[in-house]
Amino acid sequence: MKINSPKDLPIKRGDRVFVRCDFNVPLDEFGNITDDRRIRMALPTIKYLLDNDCKIVIASHLGRPKGEFNEKFSLKPVAKRLSHLLKQDVIMAKDVVGSDAKEKAANLKEGEVLLLENVRFDSRETKNDEGFAKELSEFGDFYINDAFGVSHRAHASVEAITRFYDSCRKAGGFLLLKEINFFHKLLENPVRPFVAVVGGSKVSGKLQALVNLLPKVDKMVIGGGMAFTFLKAMGYNVGNSLVEDDLIDEALKIMAEAKRLGVKFYLPVDIVIADKFAEDAMVKYVTYQEIPDGWMGLDIGPATVRLFGEVLWDAQTILWNGPMGVYEMDKFSRGTFKISHEIARSHGIKVVGGGDTADAVQRAGDDEEMTFISTGGGASLELLEGKKLPGVAALEIPDEVSCQ
Ligand code: AMP
Known about the structure:
It is built from 14 helices and 17 strands. By secondary structure, the protein is α/β, with parallel strands linked by helices.
């Protein structure tokens, strides 16, 4: 099976193309976009269609509006930013499949772009409703999914809609294809040594990814809250640190499996501990053997940064998912930022996945240095877990089909 790129589609001047983008961008309290990466990353597909004089109808979600109109989740700020980036007007519909959207779509001229309102204003979107998908499909002769960030969800504009397009009328957008190709290459044919750096809050959230990655990597580095379940499994006191007692057996199994496979497995050797989960907490640095009762580990310590730095030194491929500590608080951000710098200065391929990790890399000022930062947190994690994403599977067509 294969997936068409936009260039494989027999698109002609004046064709109507429906594009599902992921414009789920962060907004501040005043409704300003604080990070427009997801919009900028979708530009290649939109520009390709503009260069081919298509009529483009774009759909996206923003936030979780619960199936009804809510001004707070309107895509209006996105339309403005997209206009600015494309240097042309983007027409904004007042609804999703209502009379305004339909009228504006019908009047669309070649080279014009219409943005529908938030698809999640219609409760049928998240139910993968076929009737809603059919109405959406009436906006386009062709369908392109460039919304990697939602492709792990079987939603109407991502999954059900593909049923209304035959093999030569649907494609993955350039961004979506780039995302899946990066992860595919990484997991199937990495340049070695391949090091996975995994952090974040809990083992449970990443268990499947750890199990799937273990046979593929040469070294595995664990940081963040999840490290404490491993340390506890090894018999150490972890005080009030985040621990999942029910996963201690799993943690032991993972460590045994790493040993069996010859994968080098690294845990923090020193920890920044605090007497409470707060910015004004009292802080101490201790080795992992010496976490006292009543204290909690909220970041990796300086010795760990050096150790992990050395582990990364000869890496040819690095995959990073999950912060090393509670990086949102200044006091516990140093470990994450320093590991970000260590990864950034490696000469290998550096792939970052996960919303928090991408945010941390940006705050650390290392985003330009990374080879690839995924736009999809949940979606990239599911790829690491070895799962097929429903939105991607729905784009697959038989190898023998040629559309040109
Ligand atoms: P995840 O969504 O699983 O990647 O987790 C990201 C979150 O993990 C971030 O919000 C961090 O603040 C949090 N985190 C990282 N290290 C720790 C820790 N030692 N204790 C508690 N939370 C942590």
